C-alpha cells in the first residue's frame, strides 16, 4: 500500500499550530467518549482550525473525516500487549521476522553502514522495528489516517496529545506532503515504521537524497528517519540495548508496551548476531 507522504524540512508553522492547539482553553469543542458528539466536535474544530490558519486543502480533507469505531476499540484493548514475550513473539511470527530481517541486513549492508556511521544505531533495532511495525512494508494499515487521528483527538482519553497530532497531519496535507485520503494504522500512524504525524515533521530524514521524505516507499528515508528518532531520544553509540542496558531506555521511548519493547530487543539481538 502506498500513499502521498512527501515533505521537506520547513516545519516552523506546525509548531505554532501545535502550541496553539494545546494551549489552555484552545480546544475547539468538548471531547467525547462515544460517536454521539463527534459531528458537533468536528464542526467546532474546523472553525477553530480555520481561525488558526489551517489552509483550504487541509480543511477540505478534514470535512471528510468520520468517527472510527475500530480505532477506539483498539485503543482501549490492545490485547496482544497483555501476552508474555514468548507468546507475543509466537503470535507475531518472531522467527519469520528474524529470518527475513537477516536477509534485509545482508541485502542492504551499505545502507545500514551509512546509517550506523551517522547515528550510531546498528541494523538490529531498526530491522526489528521495521518488521514489527509493518512486516517490512507489507502491512502499513488500511484505515483513513485523518479520520483515525481526528477520532482520537475527539476522544477524551488523550485529546490534547492527539489534537497536536491532528494539527500536524493537517500541516502535512496543506503542504502536499500527505494525501487527504492516505491510509495507515488505526492510530493514524504513517509509513513502514509507523510514525505519528508530528514525528514525521520532527524526525523525518531524506535518506536517499531525492529532496523529499517518503516514509511509505523509500527504504533509505524509512530507516534513516527511524535511526534519527532513536538518536534524538538518546541512543548511545556502542552501548547495549537489552533490558538493563543504556539503549533499552531509548527503545522504551518508541513504544510504551513492555512486551513490545522486549520483542524489539530480542529480534534485534538475533539479527545483529547473524
UniProtKB/TrEMBL annotation:
Keywords for this protein: Signal
Domain of life: Bacteria
Domain Transglycosylase SLT: 38-241
UniProt-listed GO biological process terms: peptidoglycan catabolic process
Gene3D superfamilies: 1.10.530.10, Bacterial muramidase
Matches recorded under Pfam families: SLT_2
GO-annotated molecular function: peptidoglycan lytic transglycosylase activity
Signal peptide feature range: 1-20
Name under which the protein is recorded: Murein transglycosylase
Organism of derivation: Kumtagia ephedrae
